[in-house]
Amino acid sequence: MTALDIRHYDHHQAAEIRQLLLDVYAEVYAEAATTDPFATVDRYAQGLDGWSRRPGWTCVVGYDQDQPVGYAYGAPLPAGAPWWGGLLTEVPADVVEETGTRTYALSELMVRVPWRKTGAARQLHDALLAARPEERATLLVDQEHPKVHALYQSWGWQTLGDLRPRIPDAPLFHAMLRDLPQR
Ligand SMILES: CC(C)(COP(=O)(O)OP(=O)(O)OC[C@H]1O[C@@H](n2cnc3c(N)ncnc32)[C@H](O)[C@@H]1OP(=O)(O)O)[C@@H](O)C(=O)NCCC(=O)NCCS
Prior knowledge:
Radius of gyration: 16 Å
Number of domains: 1
CATH topology: Aminopeptidase
Oligomer: single chain
Strand order of the largest sheet: 1-2-3-4-5-7-6
Structural class: alpha+beta
Number of helices: 5
CATH architecture: 3-Layer(aba) Sandwich
CATH superfamily: Gcn5-related N-acetyltransferase (GNAT)
Bound molecules: coenzyme A
Helix content: 25-40%
């Protein structure tokens, strides 16, 4: 396993690393962006800017020597978070009740192809979540990517139900939850 040099950032440093995050995204999603309007760099940049301006946003970037290999980022869900607005599966109301400090949302995790299957993705995932004070984390995984869904299950994530964000062109996701390490 390649032991990555993992660098931590927060929203104060978002502008500093924005281009790097976009460049890695453009490479990783180059093929997907040719057919999926949800995957274009412009669309992604809007999402990144929305997430990274939140005061609670955190990001880890992994380096192998001087090469960025991938990254992960997220932020705590605010009270009354729109995150759960597109949930299609019926669950008890308290499951999706947000307080602002209950749930950390892992928004993105991506690794450049040469570092796939090296343990880099898991290192980034663990580094992002390790010091979180929240009770649990959530993420969304595209239902057309069953292998990624299975990967997250193997990392301890559980599927809550189906979710389609209420934004144009959004795919159908599995909404997943995981207890955080502090618990
Ligand atoms: C998800 C990711 C970080 C996992 O990295 P990893 O732990 O090294 O695992 P792998 O890359 O081997 O992925 C596991 C399996 O999922 C598949 N997979 C990964 N991303 C996929 C995607 N976007 N679409 C479809 N299948 C995908 C892989 O092909 C692999 O299948 P295989 O075992 O048959 O080869 C990495 O695959 C990646 O960056 N994917 C593109 C971005 C992405 O989809 N991020 C997740 C968003 S929820």
